[in-house]
Amino acid sequence: MQQQQIIIAVDGYASCGKSTLAKDLARNLEYIYLDSGAMYRAVTLYCLRNNIDIMQINEINTALENIQIDFRYNAEIGFSETYLNGENVERLIRSKEVSDRVSEVAVIAEIRVFCVEQQRNIGKNRGLCCDGRDIGTVVFPDAELKIFLTADMDIRAKRRFEELQRKNIEMTYDEIVANLKKRDHIDSTREHSPLRKAADAIEINNSYLSQTEQLKKALSLARKAMVPAKQLD
Ligand code: CDP
């Protein structure tokens, strides 16, 4: 049976392991992986570097005219990296400075429209696995599979701490907890595209699941979602 190319949306709070799961799914299914958060982080980096006053809409609009974000495949790591106006910013966008400001930048409607348009374009041929906050609710409301990932706060903070240590990015455990709480609050209470579980999303709490176990669960959901509804009758 010919398998259908689908869109898999992985949404959830900060540092729940969304990108790990989305990347694993993409690798297994030979799909494109799209890190929507990287776009908001790249816009934030641009605003910080250029002293853009994010309260001034004309400054935002001018900035957006000068921002070009793209993802380029790095064969050494097996994944795409984020480029801002031709510069590889993959590491810089994970810094404390950007993490501290990104959620304030991501509340701005113009910035969301800018990012969402590019995300939809990348997913226009389906065969995409995308993680973020509004992927199943706003960006791809017709995604065939929507996963809402959750995990306990101490586990999320510990995972992020270990990830940043591996990348040699300085942030203490307490700073990480404060940052995750602040972003969760802003992300879920903002006016435009707040983080929430889509009505048809399947929730997975991965606090006590290994990377392999969560992938197995998600792959089985993906395989079911790939069978066109007609053939299930
Ligand atoms: O990796 P982590 O879960 O910490 O965050 P991220 O996916 O890199 O996203 C960084 C920030 O961008 C989030 O805290 C949101 O404020 C914003 N974001 C968003 O508003 N919408 C998305 N689809 C993805 C990220």
Topology:
Elements: E1 7-12, H1 18-29, E2 32-35, H2 36-49, H3 57-65, E3 69-74, E4 79-84, E5 87-88, H4 96-105, H5 109-122, E6 128-132, H6 135-139, E7 145-150, H7 153-166, H8 173-189, E8 202-205, H9 211-226, H10 229-232
Parallel strand pairs: 1-6, 1-7, 2-6, 7-8
Antiparallel strand pairs: 3-4, 4-5
Helix pairs in contact: 1-9, 2-4, 2-5, 4-8, 7-8
Bound molecules: cytidine-5'-diphosphate.
Cytidine-5'-diphosphate binds near residues 15, 40 and 133.
Structural commentary:
This protein has one domain (7-228): Rossmann fold, CATH 3.40.50. The model has no long low-confidence stretch (mean pLDDT 95). With 233 residues, it is an alpha/beta fold. It has helices spanning 18-29, 36-49, 57-65, 96-105, 109-122, 135-139, 153-166, 173-189, 211-226, 229-232; strands spanning 7-12, 32-35, 69-74, 79-84, 87-88, 128-132, 145-150, 202-205. Helix content is 49%, strand content 17%. The longest helix has 17 residues, at 173-189. The strands form two sheets. Strands 2-6-1-7-8 form a five-stranded parallel beta sheet. Strands 3-4-5 form a three-stranded antiparallel beta sheet, covered by helices on one side. It binds cytidine-5'-diphosphate (CDP). Cytidine-5'-diphosphate binds next to helix 1, helix 2, helix 4 and helix 8.
How is this structure best summarized?
By secondary structure, the protein is of the alpha/beta class.
